[in-house]
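User: Aminopeptidase N. Structure?
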Amino acid sequence: MTEPVEKHLKDYKRPDFNVETVELHVDICETETHVTATLGVAKSPEAAEGAPFLLDGKELELLEIEVDGRTLSEVDYTLEGEVLTLPGMPEAFSLKTKVKIHPETNTSLEGLYFADGTFLTQCEAEGFRRITFFPDRPDVMSSYRCTVVADKAKYPVLLANGNLVEEGALADGRHFATWEDPHKKPSYLFAMVAGDLACRKDSFTTASGREVALRFYVDHQDADKCEHAIESLKKSMAWDEETFGLEYDLDIYMVVATHSFNAGAMENKGLNVFNSKYVLAKPETATDTDFQNIEGVIGHEYFHNWTGNRVTLCNWFQLSLKEGLTVFRDQEFSSDMGSRAVKRISDVRVLRAAQFPEDAGPMAHPIRPESYIEMNNFYTATVYNKGAEVIRMIHTFLGPDAFRKGMDLYFERHDGGAVACEEFVKAMEDASGVDLTRFRLWYSQAGTPKVTVDRAYDAETKHYTLTFTQAVPDTPGQSNKKPMQIPVKMGLIGADGMPIPLTLEGESAQGPLERVLSFSANMESFTFTGVEDEPIPSLFRGFSAPVTKVVDFTEEELIFLMGNDPDPFNRWDAAQQLFADTILGMVADVRDDKKLSLSEPLVAAVKKTLTHDTLDKALIAQALTLPSETELGDRMAHIDVDGIHAAREFVADTLAEKLKMSWRAVFEECADDGPYTLDSESIARRRLKSLCLTYLARVETPITTFEAFASATNMTDELAALTVLSDLDAEESEKAMGLFYEAWKADTLVLDKWFMTQATSKRPGTLERVKALAEHPDFDIKNPNKVRSLIGAFCQGNPWHFHRKDGKGYDLLADTVITLNAINPSIAARMASGFNRWKRYDEERQGLMKARLERIKNTENLASGVFEIVSKALI
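Assistant: Predicted structure:
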């Protein structure tokens, strides 16, 4: 194959031509669709002399082309590969093209495609070029008017961005709808839909008194599952007005749900297209986590209306400008709607599980990448989740009031523009007066900083010194990194569990009980005075920076922090560190076949936390959930799959046996005492009850867990029990799986849970079961949700079975990637990343994974995105 071309940030320049207006006429038929596009084009003042007009197009059949009403002949333009070139264009002109496309056979789910009986679009990042010829880049912003035409009986609902300006009937049973968007936008925000969908209607009154029509379009059988999403949208709109003073700017806000979508959702201006799993929910079919995810994703896409749509990107290298900022905003929204501590823990778990390994692997990149081959490969945890942490650090350094002023200034300066990350940071500096020059390194340097903390106490002078040392590891293309500016939110705790005033050396007045240190050198010391006795430090409270913290805490100190730290995140983090140190400390003993034992102080600490009278039950559940085998592996330089599994199972079995009576008592205490409610207290109770059940299942008969499954009155409890049963090699497991399938086989989203539960099972024969399920009538390789719930869940969430020594787990992943390469290259590339850590395993497994990577790389007609992932992994 021809090696794909790499694009570089350093080569970026503004477009030579701007498209001021776009008028689309989309005529949808069963076997083909005609798209007529009329563009009002003007040459940019900075355009080079004689610069041609370049338009992108992919899988388009060009039928007609006109400039200012004159039909062009083939000598007037060139069409090579995916680029249409028009030389010698005037200063301003009208370009009209007509193309034929085939959405009904478009399995990539990009551009205009047909799925589940509906025509839908997905244009981010570069999907608009699959609809018509266009300079498909985010810094070309245009006013859009779109007319959609289709058969009225089959597709009664016709939607596009903006406001409906005209609709009517046509000959032969067809009809049309014309939509006009008053806001200029880049092509990636274009959307249209044609289908037979139910519409749930509501409204929201803005702070200025405008009434906004809310419309949710879903399959008819799902019309009763929209209420939570609608309420989440109204909460999002009110929160953005109150928190950032941002009001919605159109008369209508529409959401369309589909079961066939490559990602979570898309913020197209005024017409969001969603993966149905982030819209549809009711207690019988959705878990607490589903409800929370819907609230967060609904908020995320709504918040994009300002951070992404009103102010957009000048190029795709700046993706974190909108995604990192909007993830931060949706995290803050969800924190305000529920438990801030539990939300923070949840977000950090995702970061550590997905982004830290990315930073340590072959695809490591800064939150603003320097280059890419396939843009879809950079919708990553680094851009989104680490990007949000970078925004959060700015918020920590500036404080909430100055941060809000910075946001206000950012919108004042750049509303309606396509800008870069520098513009955001500059607005924050100018609004606050804080110099963020050093901080900008977070945008350009990849890698997770490792911060080592040394402690020293002088009993004579009553001085306590913390010395921080940082090292930013080498990553592909980057070495010899500069030290980052890192906020360390911290406190000191006395032996009595009480906080100690933080008075830095040289200060006259007594300091606060908590403060933020700014650490920006390779090594830096901070000395606190007036410390009567040696304290225990509480560092990086609330996870104040995305770093790996190394402190030589003893088991006794971790137990102390677990029980006394006033910061709930650090209580959880101490528990996780305690568990990780314990389990990883056993791995060598497993390898040497030595007898394992668990310390009594650790068992006592777990019991104390479990039975605590005042702690949030959700925090207890988070703290006492053992780190996953994947998380434990990420803490090892060389991952010992079998040792981790054996050690973790031993710890879980031992805690289950030694605390059997406590697990049972708390489980019964958390039993439901009424109808399902979604308040924080009820969610916390169900979460802790589920954790207790996972431990009880290790020491009680399977009948106990089956009874919990059979008596469940909501999907949260039902799925929790089914998940526990899936790990048991017992007839009750098979019985429950059969009952669950028969009850929910008509609901595709619930079936995704059924697939995932079996894919992540610890039972023997799980790989063979997964392969069999891939042939199940309800599994569809063309549906990304199905692929993620079965193959993705197995390869990413079940390391012990995936890394079987016979290599058959690797065969399953390689075969899936090769199959998807021809169907949906974007999903294929994401699946291929499952091999990214191959060099961190034992020599035998390395050889097996490398062979599968090479087989993928040698596949004929390999997509550029898959090529990029695999070739970088093999370096």
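Residues 568-591 form the longest helix (24 residues). The mean pLDDT is 97.
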